Amino acid sequence: MSGKSSREARREERLQAEGEDAAQERRKRLLQLGSALVFLAIVVVAVLIVVSQNDGSGGDTNLEDTELVSSDLRGIAQSGLTLGEKSATVTLVEFGDLQCPVCKGFSEQIVPEVIDAKVRAGEAKLEFRNFVIISQESVPAGAAAVAAGQQGRGWNFIELFYRNQGPEASGYVTDEFLTEIARGAGVADIGQWNNDRKSQATLNQVTRTTEEAKRLGLTGTPSFAVTGPGASGMEVLGTPGSARQLEEAIEAAG
What total of structural domains would you count in the chain? Predict the structure, then answer.
């Protein structure tokens, strides 16, 4: 082979090698770019998940009857776990357990009639007192309601809890569930609510009202009592079968 042919052959080999190196470099850059895009997509998805989890507006969309509860109670004064105007001279007291399925039925069928007929009209106040009889899970549930009441959303919490109630003592009353109820009920400061519901003072209140119910001779939930100028102290009503019976007791106590 002549010198010229040899040089041309080496030149072709060099060009071929350079072309392969360039192709490998391009493939390497494409792989790096692809990895970067995949990483960026993962970051974007993660950010969206975090944002959605921390969005406290409107409560949890999986809760039932959030808007219905809000509408039913809108415009009625609340203080602690008392619903109605402070000036009302008659107080109807409900002793209930948030896990109680019968209490749930009353909250949906009977209590709303009493609220519309007597509480909204300013003739009576309606007060909820915890009477823990179902299981130990009822204690943190009751304490969470008391803490919601400290932010003026106690009855929203109670009513929304009932409408999303699970099977008795099944373990559904978790911190996550209670927080969903609190958000759906419109509790503004969840951090403060968490501190309040776990405080000894709040837990003591749940114990105190439970002991009160026992002293009154109550044996089941919901049980009602009434006080007022026409009543003889705290008059125990038991578990009336209709809203009208509760309304008549309010009228008699007024």
Answer: 2
Average pLDDT over residues 200-225: 98
**Phi (first) and psi of residue 148, to 5 degrees:** -65, -35
Q: Please write the tens of the pLDDT for every residue from 35-67.
A: 444 333 433 333 333 333 333 333 344 899 999
Mark whether 37 and 163 lie in a shared domain.
Answer: no
Token pair for 129: 């007192």
Is the bond into 112 cis (omega within 30 degrees of 0)? no
Q: Rounded to 5 degrees, what are φ and ψ at 252?
A: -70, -30
Give yes or no for a contact between 221 and 96, defined as CB atoms under 8 angstroms apart.
yes
| Cα–Cα distance, 184 to 51 (Å, whole number) | 18
Q: Is the dihedral angle over the CA atoms 158, 160, 163, 166 positive or is it negative?
A: negative
- Residues 132, 74 contacting (CB under 8 angstroms): no
Model confidence at 184: pLDDT above 60: yes
Report the side by side order of strands in the sheet with 235-238: 78-79, 82-83, 124-130, 90-96, 223-227, 235-238
What residue numbers bound the domain in which 173 lies? 66-253
- Provide the β-strand partners of residue 125: 91
Tokens of 48: 């969206």
Q: Which two tokens stand for residue 234?
A: 């705290």
Q: Are 125 and 142 in contact (CB under 8 A)?
A: no
pLDDT band at 123 (very low <50, low <70, confident <90, very high): very high
Tell me if 210 sits within 8 A of 219, measured CB to CB: no
Clarify whether residues 101 and 215 are in a common domain: yes
Phi-psi region of 200 (alpha: psi -120 to 50; beta: other; left: phi over 0): alpha
pLDDT tens across 64-92, in order?
Answer: 999 999 999 999 999 999 999 999 999 99
